[in-house]
Design brief:
Length: about 475
């Protein structure tokens, strides 16, 4: 590619394509990257022919050379359609493959060798959040039209598992003919590993880091572009230079783009810079316990156009699952319940015992109402204030969850809709985010200050007062 494309850019690459090990069969075609949707390869011809006994065959790798000379590797390619047409009485086969990953800049040896030890990406909103750092400039010659200014060293955030996570900055000063100048600054997140591991491991970690910064910055944070390197892809006399390999994959990005005012963030970088490594470590250490809950909740940020009812249910489910994963039933209460179950089972007819046992399996689980009451009591007083100011907040959450889950007609007249359901969702969301921040070890006084200065909290409080 003559110009590096963002993950949010849709583009086409034309060239010749083949299966590794079968270089003699090269087929012309067009690769289409549709941002947020699919990576498709449309071939004028087929690799395998109509007589292939497995029409759904998945190819681990497809190689390509684009018309501007870029090496391309497509990973995990599924044949989607295979058709024939007549062009001037000549039969032409056409084939379409759907790929999971598009890697521009290198032909990986095999699918199990799609490895890297370094990944760098620019995350949305991170540049606006992080202030200027100590910089140095590097320029050559007297007639300078551009100077690139970088940190002397990346700022390391954390060593975790196999990975080292750092922040790095680059500033570009562009000079014009009338001696004026403009500057462009970008913050990149860099992930290193001493040994090369599958790219998927880096992308999985990047997903969790994006969710972490989404929480801190109070808006969806996602990769704008990313590249990796590979030890086998080197240049120079000493093989010191590893050129970037650009990664594209299906990545959902929110349609709405918010401005980066400081009062939209929960914290400024300066406020939590010293706490950031410990917060990030706590986040990653909680991944086995809470990752499914994060995926459920943060989908409401990344998929901003989902129906309000779905958004509400996702947030409620996240809150309920969070309580279930982080709270425990008192031992004495559990023993009492076990004794109660034994007594009930002993008195029940044998033919109903299996049915009854299944029905009573979750009988000691707290109700949603009880879970919400306990969680609100753990929140800073600002969240408790929102709940109390609203009125019957817990009752309305329970009613709407029950109606939307079970469609109980008796609850139809009590359910909320429109702006009222949106307000319920916003209160639930800010409550859940406050609980997550406490889970990361944020002091309650600091969290209270963050909530009071946050534009989202101020807007919710204003809407409650207007009811």
């Amino acid at each position: 590619m003559k110009e590096i494309k963002l993950l949010s850019d849709s583009f086409d690459l034309q060239g010749n394509w083949w299966i590794p090990g079968r270089e003699e069969v090269k087929i012309y075609g067009t690769l289409k990257y549709s941002a947020g949707h699919t990576i498709t390869l449309e071939l004028v011809g087929t690799f395998l022919g109509h007589d292939d006994p497995n029409p759904d065959r998945i190819l681990d790798l497809i190689y390509g050379i684009t018309t501007d000379g870029n090496e391309v590797s497509l990973c995990d390619c599924t044949r989607w359609t295979l058709s024939s047409s007549l062009d001037n009485i000549v039969a032409i086969n056409r084939c379409i493959y759907i790929a999971e990953y598009l890697l521009v800049g290198y032909h990986f040896i095999s699918r199990n060798k799609v490895l890297t030890g370094y990944l760098s990406c620019e995350l949305a909103h991170l540049t606006s959040w992080i202030p200027l750092f100590p910089i140095k400039h590097d320029s050559k010659g007297n007639n300078v039209s551009q100077i690139t200014v970088t940190w002397g060293k990346p700022q390391k955030l954390l060593e975790y598992d196999l990975f080292s996570i750092s922040l790095k900055a680059a500033h570009t000063l562009n000079y014009t003919s009338n001696n004026s100048a403009s500057t462009e600054r970008k913050i990149h997140l860099a992930i290193n590993s001493e040994t090369e591991v599958p790219i998927e491991k880096f992308l999985s970690l990047l997903r969790r880091l994006g969710q972490f910064f989404s929480l801190i910055l109070n808006q969806a944070v996602y990769p704008l572009n990313l590249f990796c390197t590979n030890n086998q892809n080197t240049f120079g006399n000493d093989d010191e230079y590893q050129p970037p390999i650009y990664i594209y994959y299906r990545l959902q990005q929110p349609e709405e783009h918010r401005s980066d005012f400081l009062n939209e963030f929960y914290f400024t970088f300066n406020q939590i810079e010293s706490y950031l490594p410990n917060m990030l470590r706590a986040w990653l250490e909680n991944t086995p316990l809470l990752e499914m809950i994060w995926d459920l909740y943060f989908s409401t940020l990344y998929f901003s156009n989902i129906f309000l009812e779905n958004k509400f249910l996702n947030i409620v489910s996240s809150v309920e699952a969070f309580h279930r994963r982080t709270s425990s039933i008192n031992a004495s209460e559990n023993e009492e319940h076990e004794n109660r179950l034994k007594s009930i089972m002993a008195s029940a007819p044998m033919e109903y015992s299996s049915w009854l046992k299944q029905k009573l399996k979750y009988s000691n689980e707290p109700t949603l109402r009880k879970r919400l009451k306990e969680l609100i009591s753990q929140c800073p007083e600002e969240i408790q204030y929102l709940s109390e100011s609203y009125g019957d907040f817990i009752g309305d959450v329970v009613t709407n969850r029950n109606y939307l889950t079970h469609y109980d007609e008796s609850l139809k007249t009590q359910k909320k809709g429109g702006t009222e359901l949106l307000l319920l969702s916003k209160i639930l969301a800010i409550m859940f985010e406050a609980l997550l921040l406490k889970k990361l070890g944020v002091d309650e006084k600091i969290l209270s200050l963050a909530l009071r200065r946050c534009l989202k909290f101020q807007n919710i409080r204003h809407k409650i007062k207007k009811r």
